[in-house]
Amino acid sequence: MKKLFILLLLAMALPAMAQEVEVTSLQRLLEGVEGPAYYPVLDQAGNRLLFSSEEGALKYYDMVDGVTTVVTRDYVAGNDACWGGDGKVYFVTQEVGEDHLIYRTGQSYDVATRQSAVVTPSQHGAVRAVPATRGGAVKAPAQNYSSSGNIGEAAWAEGSRVHVTVGGEERVFSPVDSWAGYLWASLSPDGKRVAFFAAGKGIVVIDLRGQVLAMLGNYEMPCWYNNDYLVAQNAKDDGHQFTSSQIMLLKADGTWQAELTKPASMALQPTCGGGKIVYTTIDGLLYEMKINIYQ
Hints:
Strand content: over 45%
Shape: globular
Helix content: under 10%
Largest sheet: 4 strands, antiparallel
Strand order of the largest sheet: 1-26-25-24
Low-confidence stretches: 1-17
Number of strands: 26
Mean pLDDT: 93
């Protein structure tokens, strides 16, 4: 009986022991074409890439035809832009008013016509662009905006709450305590789970009822690679500046993780789409990575 029990334990451990990831390609993007680029955001197909210049201008790079286009030269803070499910860009510009307060304006950009439209008025307070499966939204204190009456499924974080829209119903959860709130909430590609970062806890994965499914570790900026894996940033600092940063691959059930870059790579801000991973470095160098995961 003891021998059988040991054999069963070994059999259960074999899948985890056998799991591997291989980086099959790694290439620099926009070398010699653009200056430092930050906060990359891939669309779902992995064909178009939003990024911010060092001055805060928002641009997108068509990875099929190799063309870069300016969305706006107004200042867009990091993580304030996203691709909607309708193919449009939703973003938030900001400026300092005469009263020295920061005012934010929600906007949309039509890639086909290259035209921008203001969708929420300039206002003081938190304004966030939210991607959805059928369009996009802008959440703001004074006035919200949705691209249509049914934007599909969406997820976003506000304070210590995760908001999830499913079938037109908005659900609000606070599944873990966090002294400084939640960030970077996103739906899995199949729309069945939400991943987000909780300060002091790390990356949390929940179902659509708000039940915690897994805690993935103290990493930042999670993005879904597919339904089973996420990619995230593992950054360390000395209280003043980053001392190391790397890109990690995390299994969504919390059972496995692997390094995709070394800590000395200073790799930051990963984004996923269409089987691609794009990230930048502390110096603003963009890279595209492709991987194979073996079980």
